[in-house]
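Good morning,

Attaching, inline, the backbone tokens for the sequence recovery test we're adding to the shared suite. The designed sequence is right after.
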């Protein structure tokens, strides 16, 4: 089961900040876009992963990016906020509208993965997970020593969290948190924020 999903910290298209976190049924690895087209990088990586022999098919990704717009744009009764979804308000997350192009790319990627590769995409929010599991220890400028210490805390909660190497960047650590969100979801340990009609965030 561990190799059937991946966590992704999603960045701007050619920033190099997109990182995939994946467990190969032995240890967790990080894969970085390295300033390539991030969306093509993800698609190519999943293609190779699905073609791998002697391993269950990768079927799900957990993406740190908005995957829907506020429901007011779909004229759904009961929704009136043009800037934030209910899940964004609950978690104090950034507006999908403010993120603009990144949101559009993420929504397009989700559709492409579903239609072309039969891969489901779920929205996660690493910061919210960190606030849930790591108390006040998480911030956006973690040192390598801090990330190692936080990984040790996470490994006490998730015994299967076995790393080939500790995260070296904040983006790798956030990809790991996206992976942990996926692990929690698949083991029915997760929390859900938002309205299914509009879009939910898995924590």
């Amino acid at each position: 089961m561990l190799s059937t999903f991946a966590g992704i910290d999603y960045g701007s298209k050619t920033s190099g900040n997109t990182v995939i976190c994946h467990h190969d049924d032995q240890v967790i690895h990080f894969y970085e876009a390295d300033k390539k087209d991030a969306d093509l990088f993800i698609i190519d990586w999943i293609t190779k992963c699905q073609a791998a022999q002697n391993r269950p098919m990768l079927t799900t990704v957990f993406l740190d990016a908005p995957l829907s717009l506020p429901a007011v744009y779909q004229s759904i009764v009961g929704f009136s906020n043009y800037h934030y979804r209910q899940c964004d308000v609950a978690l104090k997350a950034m507006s999908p509208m403010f993120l603009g192009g990144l949101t559009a790319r993420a929504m397009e990627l989700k559709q492409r993965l579903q239609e072309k590769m039969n891969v489901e995409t779920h929205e996660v929010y690493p910061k919210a997970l960190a606030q849930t599991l790591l108390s006040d220890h998480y911030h956006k400028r973690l040192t390598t020593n801090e990330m190692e210490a936080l990984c040790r805390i996470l490994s006490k909660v998730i015994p299967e969290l076995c790393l080939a190497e500790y995260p070296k960047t904040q983006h790798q650590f956030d990809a790991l948190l996206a992976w942990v969100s996926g692990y929690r979801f698949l083991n029915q340990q997760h929390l859900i924020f938002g309205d299914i009609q509009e879009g939910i965030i898995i924590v």
